[in-house]
Design brief:
The structure is a single chain. The chain is of the alpha/beta class. The chain has two domains: 149 residues, no CATH class; 287 residues, 3-Layer(aba) Sandwich (Rossmann fold). The chain is built from 15 helices and 13 strands. β10, α10 and β11 form a beta-alpha-beta unit. The longest helix is centred in the middle third of the chain and has 24 residues. It comes from Junco hyemalis (Dark-eyed junco).
């Protein structure tokens, strides 16, 4: 071979080698495998402070996206990287460039690669091998070209081999397995909070469950047919208030007739209603049954004060049939009143409502007066509210929604659409019977201010001001919303108001 030809061949090969070493500018839209992502490359079309994320599964195409590291937590991928500060720009803007799908059979299972690519600079800011969905399990520092200690080629395989042992990745993955669950737990309440008011507006009947709470049938495992297990001198009975609806009732006789009541049947109890002792029709609040602790205490306390008490579980509560509704409650109470009136002779009959039952009591008393011309003996309201809309606006459970835009329209106005009013403030304007209001200063469910407002409304409407009375119980007694019946002087206070000896 001619020596000059040999020399020319060497020069050509030497030139080709030099051309290989010459840095090339590659774009983010290039079709690059991991093996070609080497230190020192410059991508001029990458926006400032953006990171490229590769979600890789072994033997599957890589999906790539360009996104700012500062917004990494908002991506579907849980990968997060520290922001790379670029002196050239402070703006963050979306970038349309994405890598084309490629197959990388050598990639470890469930690993993700992230490359920091500042605008116009080498991507030497750092390269991380991240275990899905854990961040920062394995990190391999990438040096700038010309820096101390070359990376040794910088191929994708080298990056994984440097610190990408599967055991380390698995350890990180096990240590952070709860991150996706935590994100779900945080997101679910937020979605519920935002969607709930709109669901209520679209389906106002959903409010029935939240207002009546009839599905909370406490206490559990109660045999309603055997009330004597909880309170003496009491019998269970059932009353059909309209076709298809039967309600459960406990009848407690005065303690003065307790010895006589032993072993007696329902007929004797019915006849006892005519013994001239006053009769209380007790209308409980939402949730629970007539066997609840504070309701049983009421039966004991007022029975000991020589009252007959008939404790009613409205339709849909306890062992009563049917479904709860305001009109249905009115029907149940008036049917029980008629049943008692037919057996009690000239005995005085009172409506005693507690909490939700106060609205039911004033509804029934007004209907009797306006539709039948009958005045009830008295109405006692324990822990009352003005109307159900005001109650919903003030009870603790709605506190988190009060700052929600459109709270009044979406939730409060929906109560009327669901057929719930319980307008005690309007009802008391029409009543003329004695009206006693009881409220504890430490009521944490229905604010005492609503009881005071109802009292002021009634006082202005009544011609005979002596028929309206408000009794408050100081906070130090700790009676709250449910336990006024435990106050030892309650029977005496009621008797004094009714001018009973």
């Amino acid at each position: 071979m001619n020596p000059s030809q040999n020399l020319k061949g060497k020069r050509k090969r030497h030139c080709r080698k030099k051309k290989k070493k010459k840095p090339t500018k590659k774009t983010a839209g290039g079709n690059l495998p991991i093996s070609q992502l080497v230190p020192g490359e410059v991508w001029n079309d990458i926006s400032p402070n953006f990171a490229i994320f590769f979600a890789l599964n072994k033997g599957e195409p890589c999906s790539a996206a360009v996104a700012p590291p500062l917004l990494g937590s908002l991506l579907p991928s849980p990968v997060r990287l520290p922001a790379h500060k670029s002196p050239s720009s402070t703006a963050l803007r979306p970038h349309p460039a994405t890598f084309q799908p490629r197959i990388f059979p050598s990639a470890r299972e469930n690993l993700a690669f992230a490359v920091l690519a500042p605008y116009g600079e080498k991507y030497s800011g750092g390269c991380s091998v991240l275990a899905w969905p854990v961040v920062g399990v394995v990190r391999t520092a990438m040096r700038r070209r010309g820096g101390v200690g070359d990376s040794g080629g910088g191929s994708g395989g080298d990056i994984v081999r440097a610190e990408g042992k599967l055991g380390v990745a698995q350890h990180g993955r096990a240590g952070r397995w709860w991150l996706p669950w935590l994100r779900t737990l945080l997101l679910a309440p937020l979605l519920t909070y935002v969607s709930f008011p709109f669901l209520i507006r679209l389906f106002p009947s959903l409010l029935n469950k939240f207002v009546y709470l009839n599905f909370l049938s406490f206490p559990l495992f109660v045999d309603f047919r055997r009330p004597e297990l909880l309170v003496n001198n009491t019998i269970n009975l059932y009353l059909t208030t309209e076709p298809g609806v039967t309600v459960g009732i406990w009848h407690t006789v005065p303690s003065s007739r307790g010895a006589e009541a032993q072993g007696k049947d329902q007929r004797w109890y019915e006849e006892a209603l005519a013994d001239a002792h006053p009769v209380i029709i007790y209308l409980h609040g939402n949730g629970g049954t007539r066997a609840a602790r504070h309701r049983v205490q009421f039966l004991k306390a007022m029975g000991a004060a020589d009252f007959h008490i008939l404790a009613l579980d409205y339709r849909g509560y306890a062992d009563s049939t049917g479904y709860p509704s305001e009109n249905g409650f009115n029907t149940d109470v008036l049917a029980l009143y008629d049943w008692v009136k037919a057996r009690s002779g000239n005995s005085s009959i009172l409506f005693w409502g507690h909490s939700l039952g106060t609205g039911i009591a004033t509804n029934a008393a007004r209907k009797l007066q306006e539709e039948r011309g009958v005045q009830i003996g008295a109405v006692v309201l324990e822990s009352p509210y003005t109307n159900i809309r005001d109650a919903a606006a003030n009870i603790p459970i709605t506190k988190i929604f009060r700052q929600f835009p459109g709270f009044g329209y979406l939730i409060l106005d929906s109560m009327a659409r669901a057929g719930m009013f319980f307008p005690s403030d309007e009802n008391v304007k029409m009543l003329s019977c004695p009206l006693l209001i009881l409220h504890a200063d430490d009521d944490g469910v229905v604010p005492p201010k609503l009881g005071h407002q109802l009292y002021e409304t009634a006082l202005q409407a009544y011609r005979d001001k002596s028929k309206v009375k408000l009794i408050t119980f100081p906070q130090k007694l700790g009676l709250g919303h449910d336990y006024i019946s435990f106050h030892p002087e309650l029977p005496a206070l009621v008797k004094d108001f009714l001018n009973m000896k």
